[in-house]
C-alpha cells in the first residue's frame, strides 16, 4: 500500500498565483468494507478529535519550540508573498502601464529580495516541519511498540499480527497528520487567510466583502463530506491491516499452503480482502475528487465575480489595473488556505480513525505489572531456585472455564519435575504463571518462598529460563542468538556454551561460523540444531530454574538423542520442570505430575504411577515405542519395573 509523505508542506509556494492543490490523499490508499471490519480482531472504540489530540499531544514534548518556529516561518513566508503582490501592483501601474524603466528597478529589487527571503524561510520551515513530524512518528511508534511488548500472550493470540503491524505503520503516520502536520497546516492556512484577506480589504474593502461573502460555500462543501470520509477512512485503516495480515500469514504458512495445495484458497483470501479494499479505495478517491471539483467551480465563481466588478470599477475610474491584478492575486492566494482549512477537517477526520486504532493498543492493559516499591521483597539477584505453586486457580482473561483448579506443587534445585497430561490440561499455562505472564486468580506462585508478584518482573524472569516448544530465533548472527538476553558476554562464553550444547561442530561448519546470520523460519539449521542453539542460549543465561516446554516435539529419534546430552548438562543442579507428552522423558524424573482438565490428578515417580494404573499408566501404554532416554543427570537413575526405557 502506498504512503503519502508524512509532512505535507505547510508553507505557501512562491509565485504570483498558486494553483489549487488537490485535497491530500490522506487515506493513503483507501478503504474497505463492512465484512472486513467484522473480521478485524480489535473492536474499535469511537474516539473524537479532542480525545485524540489530548492523548497524543504530550508526545510533542521537546519539539514544541520547533513547531512554533515552523509556524513562524509560515507566517514570514505568507508576509513575503503579501509584500510581493503589492510590489507587483506597483510595478504594473508605474512601470508597465506608464512604460517607465526607471520605475522598474527599485520595486524589482525589493521583489527579488522578498522572494529570496521568502524562499530561504520556506526552505527552512519545510525542512524543520519534516524533521519534527518524523521525530513525532518515531516517538509514537516507539511508545506503541514498547506498550505492545508488555501485553500478555492472549492479546497476540486474539489479534492478527498483520493488523498490529499496520497499526504501527499506517496508523502512526495518520496520527502525525493530526498532531504535527495538521497543526502546522492550520497555522499556515490561518495566517495566510489573515494576511491575504487583510491586504485585499486594504486595497478595496467593498470588493473584498462581496468576494468573501462566497467563502462560507467552501465550508458548507467541506462539512458535507466529513462524515462519509471518516467512515471510509475507518474502513480503510482496517482494510490495510487485513491485507497485511493475509500477506503475512500467507508467508508464514507457505509450507502448509504448498503441501496442502492451498494456493488458490490463499489467493482467494487475498483477493477477497483486496476487493473490499479496492471498493473502499475507489469510494474514497471519488469523494475526494467530487470535493475537488465542487471547490474548483466555487473558485471560478469567485474569480468571475472579481473580474466583473473590476471591469466595472476600472471603467468608472475608481481602480487601476495594477490594483485589480493585485486584488485578484490576493483572492487567488486566499482560496487555497481557506480550502486547506476545510480540507484539514477531512484530514483530521481521517486521522482520528487511525487514532482510534492506536488507542485500542495503548489502552490494552498488561496482564501483570511490576509490583509497587512498597510491596517488593528484597531478594538476592540470583535465586536459589525453589519453585512452589500453592492452591492455584486460574482462568484466562475473557475465558469461561478455569484452566487450573486448586493446583499445588513444589520443586527444589537439582530436582527434575515432569508435568504431563492430555492436551489442553493446562501444562503450558502453568509455565505462563511461573514466568508471571499472568497472575493466578487465587493461590500463589513462589520463588524461594517469595510470591512472584512481589519480585520485580525483570528479576523474576532473569531467574527462569524458558525453552518453549518452538525455538525462538532472532534475525541476527548465531553468536547474538546465543548471547541473547545477557549483557557483557564474550565470544569465549558463547563458544563454551555452544560446546556444552553440542552445537560447536555444526556452527563451525556454517559459512560464517558464529557470524552466520539466521532468521526465524531459517532453513540453515535443522530443528534439532536450532534446539541446541536454544540450549546454548539457556546455558549462557544460567538461570537457576529451567522450564522445558515439549523439548523433543518435532524431533526424530536421532535428533532427540542428540539433544538429550546437552539437556542433561543444562538441567544439572537447576530446578528443572519439563512439560511433555513424551513419557520417555518422564521415566527418570524425580516426580511426575499428571494434570487433567486443570487438576493435578496423579503425582509420583514413573514406577509409582505405573503401579497406580491410573491416567499416567494409560498415557504411557498408549505412548509410541521408546526412542529417547531421559534428561536427568543425578542422582543415578534406578531401573524401573516396567523395563528401562532410557538410553544412557
Ligand atoms: N490465551 C488463552 N485464552 C483462553 N484460553 C486459553 C488461552 N491459552 C490457552 N487456553 C486454554 O487453556 C487450556 C489449557 O491450555 P494449555 O496450553 O495450558 O494446555 P496444555 O496442557 O499445555 O496443552 P498441550 O499439551 O496441547 O500443549 C486449553 O483449554 C486452552 O484452550
UniProtKB/TrEMBL annotation:
It is found in: Cell inner membrane. InterPro entries: AAA+_ATPase, ABC1_TM_dom, ABC1_TM_sf, ABC_transporter-like_ATP-bd, ABC_transporter-like_CS, P-loop_NTPase, Type_1_exporter. One of its GO terms (molecular function) is ABC-type oligopeptide transporter activity. GO terms for cellular component: plasma membrane. Residues 387-622 form the ABC transporter domain. The chain crosses the membrane at residues 66-89, 109-133, 178-201, 207-225, 294-312. The keyword ATP-binding applies. Residues 68-350 form the ABC transmembrane type-1 domain. The keyword Transport applies. Residues 1-28, 626-648 are annotated as: Disordered. It comes from the Bacteria. Pfam families: ABC_membrane, ABC_tran. Residues 253-280 form a coiled coil. It is a multi-pass membrane protein. Keywords: ATP-binding, Cell inner membrane, Cell membrane, Coiled coil, Membrane, Nucleotide-binding, Transmembrane, Transmembrane helix, Transport. Belongs to the ABC transporter superfamily. Siderophore-Fe(3+) uptake transporter (SIUT) (TC 3.A.1.21) family. This is ABC transporter ATP-binding protein. It comes from Streptomyces auratus AGR0001.
